[in-house]
Amino acid sequence: MKAQAVIRLNFSSEKQLKVVLEALKPETRTPLTRRSRAQVKREGNSLTLSFEATDISALRAAINSYLRWIHLAKTVVKSVNEFSTKGASSENA
After folding, report:
1. Considering its fold, how many domains does the chain have in total?
2. Which terminus in the chain has less CB density within 10 A, N or C?
3. Which domain, by its residues, includes 9?
4. What is the pTM of this model?
5. CB proximity list for 74: less than 8 A, separation 6 or greater
6. CATH code for the domain in which residue 9 is found
């Protein structure tokens, strides 16, 4: 492997961090291609993503995939929280 990158993302919510970490774990067990691999690790309230790839294009593709999945998981958590809050307030009305 020739290209490497490490990305650390801070989370304000432990719930969000746990959801994102669990969502990404299956992806790290089975790499997208033989050209790249990734590892995810929790460090306090941060998520550390470590990437290795055979070339810069494979590295970029892997990083983009993981960042999209993280964004999606965070969006789902936010939507569920908003729905739960709205649902609870309409039940009390």
Report:
1. 1
2. C
3. 3-91
4. 0.83
5. 16, 19, 20
6. 3.30.310.50
